[in-house]
Design goal:
2 copies of one chain form a homodimer. By secondary structure, the first copy, chain A, is α+β, with helices and mostly antiparallel strands. Chain A has 16 helices and 25 strands. Chains A and B meet through strand 1, helix 3, helix 4, strand 6 and strand 7 of A and strand 1, helix 3, helix 4, strand 6 and strand 7 of B. Chains A, B: GO terms for molecular function: aspartate-tRNA ligase activity; ATP binding; catalytic activity, acting on a protein; nucleic acid binding; transferase activity.
Chain lengths: 601, 601
């Protein structure tokens, strides 16, 4: 432990300026305070970079310029991350020492007095940009990691993004309304975190996976335009881009048709991106139906920063004599092609790699057609005529130098495999404009998906999603064909949001619950209050929720959600700094009426 | 259940205007949508009040003015809380039918077309102002209760208050930073809500009682100005004015001395009150030390909307021959007086009531002195001379017509009893200006209080509070005399906030933990990461947290916290609408590695 004498402990040295405000103060005596971020000792002169949250300033300790002797000696003892307060005269730097890389690069402070406010041990890693440090160490010492400029920039960006969303929504007459954190477990969806009740032993609150039901009830209550930047919880096994608690911008409106809502949301994003990043988004944003997104890109969240859509080549397949093509079509499957620009000269080894890639996704192989300078060469040229190959090049709009990859099989498998291959090629071939923000609405999702494990249909979004009116008659007998009034916003291949118009009539909601396999009793028990609410004058309503952690990650140009959250958890949902979770005391458990099934630790 | 034919189900009738925007549209054809809030059938004419979230508008169905016959018939079927959309021509009302009480009282809509969007059952209570309904029913049907204008006003006010705080803080370079909800149990303070971990059986997260430690770590991390509108949790037995989850405005700053911080907070409140209520607060706000607040008002959160301070009358007591006065002083107690203006004529019965009131607080009785028109009369005139009584009137600054109440005994008991009596009299005599906002800082709190149950000192605020420098030498041997650099903001007798400067050196924090009875091991185990953090260059810092639920309640002029929260819990921490908490499934418990101690339900 570092001891420090009382004389060093001057509470609250009052700075006169933040560093970023110094640019206009040349010639004045100022007082600044912050952290030592670098120190260079040239003997008669000592330079120190002082950091506060607004920037960095060069301090000069120089006897010849009037720094008192005892301050020179004190400067000699300063080390990185010491907290100091400094009084001095702000001067222009000599021309040859100007540092154009930082905002204060043309000024420096000639020190008259320095106060040591607090000492610092040598930190476990450097407090600077782009360090290569094990993330476990960064998370354990998060308070030091958060000192680094890139983390400060990201949290500042996060704040600005949140503020801009609120500004836009407040201007558009939305009310932010808080909904409970201690609420009720609901089925359908991820696993809940639950909280034992002390007053009702054996009963539990659930932390919300989203404020879905509350926001719908606020529509019943006539608020018409609601939003909330809400903390939500899911007790799922964590992937790299998941956190047990996450933040979403939750929105619900009444009397607003889908088109109007999506238009308003587009304007909101345009406002936020212009205000925070100075980026002008092109409106309206693109839209694709779910069916088209799957057909063209093999994904319900395609990255449209590059094109490379699939082209189905049924005619070509039928004209060929290739057995697997015919078999695929006979079995109701598809034959589809991807054009890989400029890759006609791919080697056997490179092509094998691509084939291996799709095999991992369940395809049996890839047919390849390369339009080389000496002509069109193909792995299946025994089964097609040169004319057929030429017509194929026309069909898929390939140019000389391009490589065409063809896959056949069950539709779902082929689409997913070719979609993944498309993404891999986009990245490998640097087809992606990393600076672009490519927004896309995917609409008309299926209302249900079939859960093999449960042996029944489950709601693709959630059980409150309004079916498309024209598909309503299919609800009982062909649920797989019912489309939802649902829309996702996709940014650069990431699903940013999920939204839908909601059911607002009791009888339709009851049909929906039946379609999901709820008995009347179960529906009544779980959602009785909601069914009741629908009978007291519920307006047509719908909404959307945006994942803000991911949005901030994309806006910050980062790759990890954890870098966009001040105090994130690891993939095993632990907090390495505070060491949470941690054992409860026997008294706590007794008070809550619960016990542990096995003795631990 | 209400059945409705498909024809009634026109999705999303697109309104052209909110009601509040209609004032400029006389003569135009408009479409509005909302809820039927009142219907008067005069035979040939039907009037309906239509409500949306912005106001109420009178609809006129009148054949003679051109309402089609089938619309007249439809109007006949409409009932309260039906959702409708209406097209018509906006006209000025006849002079004699103008309603000056509502904003749209001079206009009405002559209906051309009405769409029935959704029906409604008869609600269990009227959707209007100031209803007298059992709160249990209001909470069960919260979605209807929230439709009432006063609830809508309060939630709108809440939103405006939150927005105004954010505006001010954003303008002053604060960053809003979110801290975790799934965190670690900390000792000292209220009971935690805990959340079992699925991945680490036997371990638990705690929901935060406040972001205290995180915000201090953000200061270590150099953010300097942090805020968060944060949800916090306390599993305590609930009083009328407590909720298991509550919202606080949490603030922390570095390098900012107490005076600067309090000044900034005062300006923040002035900004919010001016912006939201149009009320100009007088700055600077009053300040009292804790010692003075207790001495003058017998409370650490005095209501200063009226004066009536205690005046100690030791000289008078010594000069009297009244045994209890002498005994009180001999035992180190006090004799103190309250002047009750204009109550010299109180009857014996009225005086008995006051005496009974203070007896409930542990006093043996009250001496009374009434300055009536015929002279000064006292319950103790056998023990004092008329001259002494006259001098007493001078000491306590009583006027003719006033009643003086005198109590003697142990200081703590007397102060509390007389403080409570002061409040009661203030209310009973209508001395309180109900429209006033009387802010007060109470400063220099004791650092510790003695917990009789635990048999040791506990932190009055929390264990991170900085002692006053001049009292530091008392920390080990006279902790009861150490004052804290702590400050509470009081509004109209309610504690709005609690704040302090924090300890920022490891050795002082360790002394503090020792004074609180922590062993080195315990301190290390619970707060090791914080003690470590203090060694890496921690700036001087301090902060404050404001209870926003209560603030909104006071600004809305309400008496119940529950009326200021969209979905509150009852005093037994239940949600009557959703029926939470509720039993977990056996699978949920097994997954979490916990079991119930007793079988329930």
């Amino acid at each position: 432990m570092i001891s420090s004498s009382p004389v060093e402990r001057t509470d609250f040295p009052q700075r006169t300026h933040f560093i970023e405000d110094l640019l206009e103060t040349v010639g004045q005596t100022v007082k600044v305070a912050g952290w030592v971020s670098r120190r260079r000792d040239l003997g008669s002169v000592i330079f120190i970079d002082l950091r506060d949250r607004t920037g960095t300033l060069q301090l000069v300790f120089n006897r010849d310029l009037g720094t008192p002797e005892e301050m020179m000696q004190l400067a000699d003892t300063l080390r990185n991350e010491f907290v100091i307060a400094v009084t001095g005269c702000l001067v222009e730097r000599d021309k040859q020492t100007i540092n154009p890389k930082i905002a204060t690069g043309h000024i420096e402070l000639v020190v008259k007095e320095v106060q040591l406010v607090n000492r610092a041990k040598n930190p476990p890693f450097y407090i600077q940009e782009g360090i290569e440090v094990d993330e476990q160490v960064r998370l354990k010492y998060r308070y030091l990691d958060l000192r680094r400029p890139e983390m400060q920039r990201t949290l500042r960006l996060r704040h600005q993004v949140f503020s801009a969303f609120r500004e836009f929504l407040n201007q558009h007459d939305f009310l932010e309304i808080e909904t409970p954190m201690l609420t009720r477990s609901t089925p359908e969806g991820a696993r809940d975190y639950i909280v034992p009740s002390r007053l009702q032993h054996g009963e539990f609150y659930a932390l919300p996976q989203s404020p879905q039901i509350f926001k719908q009830l606020l529509m019943v209550a006539g608020y018409e335009r609601y939003y909330q930047i809400a903390r939500c919880f899911r007790d799922e096994d964590l992937r790299a881009d998941r956190q047990p608690e996450f933040t979403q911008l939750d929105i619900e409106t009444s009397f607003l048709p889908t088109d109007d809502l999506l238009k308003m949301m587009e304007e909101m994003f345009a406002y936020v991106f212009a205000k925070v990043l100075g980026v002008n988004l092109t409106l309206p944003m693109k839209r694709l139906t779910y069916a088209d997104a799957m057909r063209l890109y093999g994904s319900d969240k395609p990255d449209l920063r590059f094109s490379m859509a699939m082209v189905d080549v049924e005619t070509f397949a039928r004209e060929s004599s290739l057995e697997p093509f015919h078999k695929a079509l006979e079995n109701g499957g598809i034959v589809t092609a991807l054009v890989v620009p400029g890759c006609a000269a791919y080697s056997r080894k490179q092509l094998d790699e691509l084939t291996q890639f799709v095999k991992d996704y369940g395809l049996s192989g890839l047919a390849t057609v390369a339009w080389q300078s000496e002509g069109i060469k193909s792995s299946i040229q025994k089964f097609v005529t040169p004319e057929q190959l030429t017509r194929l090049m026309d069909t898929v709009q390939a140019k000389q130098g391009d490589l065409v990859l063809i896959a056949a099989g069950k539709e779902k498998t082929v689409r997913q495999a070719m979609g993944a291959l498309r993404l891999k090629l986009g990245r490998d071939l640097s087809l992606i404009d990393e600076g672009a923000y490519c927004f896309l609405w995917v609409v008309d999702f299926p209302l249900f998906s079939y859960d093999e494990e449960l042996g029944r249909y489950v709601a693709e979004h959630h059980p409150f999603t309004m079916p498309k009116r024209e598909d309503l008659h299919l609800l009982e007998n062909h649920p797989e064909h019912v489309r939802a009034q649902a829309y996702d916003l996709v940014l650069n291949g990431y699903e940013l949001s999920s939204g839908s118009m909601r059911i607002y009539q009791r009888d339709l909601q009851e049909r929906m619950f039946r379609a999901l396999g709820f008995s009347e009793d179960e529906a009544r028990k779980q959602f009785g209050f909601l069914l009741d609410a629908f009978e007291y004058g519920t307006p047509p309503h719908g909404g959307i929720a945006f994942g803000l952690d991911r949005l901030v990650m994309l806006m910050a140009g980062g790759k990890s959600l954890r870098d966009c959250i001040a105090f994130p958890k690891t993939a095993s949902a632990t907090d390495l700094m505070m060491d949470a979770p941690s054992p409860a005391t026997p008294e706590q458990l007794a008070t809550l009426g619960i016990s542990l099934r096995t003795t631990v630790k």
